[in-house]
Amino acid sequence: MLVKLFKGLWLVMGWLRFSEAGNMFDCINRPNTAFPVPIHVEEVKDIVSVAKYILVVEKESVFQRLANDQFCNTNHCIVITGRGYPDISTRRFLGLLVDTLHLPTYCLVDCDPYGFDILFTYRFGSMVRLPDHSMNLLSVVYKLK
């Protein structure tokens, strides 16, 4: 079974429901279907979840495999991918989920320098953004366990 993916966007699936700018994203009714990660995270409201944890995966192919294997149905979790290095909105959305839902968060990356760099980008934010004082650095520090 192939799950249709949104090309060019970062993805989330699992036991989650939220609204963004008046659009409702109901992943709970189809937990193994990929939905786009919201771009305007500040407009995300009404977050509801019955998940047990959040799983962040580095690769889209792993995300696709988990969707095809009905991983979220069996494990009652939320799976999110930044398709490699995550953008700011993916990191902010993950931070919002962690802060709102208070769920344990795990990260599945390759065991190589690039995988660790991606893990640290989720955990601490991008080194490229550090000199930019216009962004509150506390908002990109997450409680990944």
From TrEMBL:
Pfam family, one: TOP6A-Spo11_Toprim
GO terms under cellular component: nuclear chromosome
Signal peptide, first to last residue: 1-21
Chain segments annotated as transmembrane: none
Any one GO biological process: meiotic DNA double-strand break formation
InterPro entries tied to this protein: Spo11/TopoVI_A, Spo11/TopoVI_A_sf, TOPRIM_Topo6A/Spo11
Domain of life, source organism: Eukaryota
Domain Topoisomerase 6 subunit A/Spo11 TOPRIM: 53-128
Keywords: Signal
GO molecular function: DNA binding; DNA topoisomerase type II (double strand cut, ATP-hydrolyzing) activity
PANTHER family given in the database record: MEIOTIC RECOMBINATION PROTEIN SPO11, MEIOTIC RECOMBINATION PROTEIN SPO11-1
Name of the protein in question: Topoisomerase 6 subunit A/Spo11 TOPRIM domain-containing protein
Organism expressing this protein natively: Prunus yedoensis var. nudiflora
